Amino acid sequence: MPTILTNKLFSLYVRLRYPSVPANLRYFYRDTYNCEMTQIKYIFRDFLFKKKYKDIYFSGEFAPELQFALPFAYWHHLNGTLRSTHSSKFTKELYFFSENHFEDFEIRTNEGNYNFELPRILYSHDYDMRKWVAVPLKKHYQNDVYVFSKPILIIANRYNMEWDGPPISFYDIETLDFIISKLKNSYTIIYNRPRPEHITTDNSDTYDLNEYDWLGKEHPEVILMENLFKENKAKANNFNHLQLMVYANASKFISVHGGTAALASYFGGVNLVISKQGPEHHFNCYNHLYPKLSGASIYHAKSNDEVRSLIEEHYI
C-alpha cells in the first residue's frame, strides 16, 4: 500500500509535470506511479525465479476487475507464477485459467478498487502495462448452442445509480426503439440488462427502466438474455457464465460505460459505448484501454444523437 510519504512525493511530481490536470483527477496519476512502484519488489520472483507464488485478490467493481485484475492474473498464469485467484461470487468462469480460484467476496466495494498490487487501478494516463495480457474469453467460450440464422447483436444496457445520483448513461426506450427498428432485420438482437439477483452487486442501486414489458409488446422478436438463462440450453453455471457463452458468439455490441462496456469489449468486432460523463473521457479510455481487451473497434458516444449517428455509420 502507498505510504503518506510516497503519496506526497508522487502528488508533488504530478503537480509539477502535469500542471493543467484538474485537481480532482490528479490522484489517478499519482496512483499510477504507486502501482508501478509496487511492482518493483516482484522483479526477481516474476522474471528470475518464476515459481508459483502469486495470490491475486480483488473485491472491487466489475469494470476494473475486467480491465486490470483479470489480465494481470492471466499474465501470471502465462508466466508460470500464478498460485491462486480470489474474487467475488460468479467469477470462476472468468478465471477459467486459474487452477485455484476462490469466490471469497459476496459484494463488490469501491474500496476494493484500490488494490495497488495490480499494474493499474481505475484510470490512468499510461496504459502501457507490462504485466497485462488480454484473456481469450471469446476463443474459450465460443460454442454451437447460441447460433442463430442472423448475426448476433448484443444490446447491453444498465440503469443504475451513478456517482451517488440518478442514472446518466443508459439507453432509454426511445433510443432502444431507434436501435431495434433500424437493426432487427439484419441481426438477431439479444437484450441484456442483468437483474441484481443475477450478478454480484456493488454499492450502486439498480432501478427499473420498465423496458421489458415494452419490448414484449413492441419488439417481441428481441431475445432477452434472462430468458436464455431460464432455458439454459448450454447448462451455464450462473448468469455470468451464460453471458460469456452468448457474447463469445457475437461480434456486434452496443453497451454502456463501466463493467457493461468492458465485458462487451472482450469479444472483438465492434462495440459502441455510451458514456456521457466520467474520468474515462479525460483519460480517453475508449481509445487507449478498451481496444486492448480483444482488438475490438470501440466507438464512444457522448449523447443519444451520437448513438444514432454511430449506428447508421457502423451497424447498417
From TrEMBL:
<protein>
    <recommendedName>
        <fullName>Glycosyltransferase family 61 protein</fullName>
    </recommendedName>
</protein>
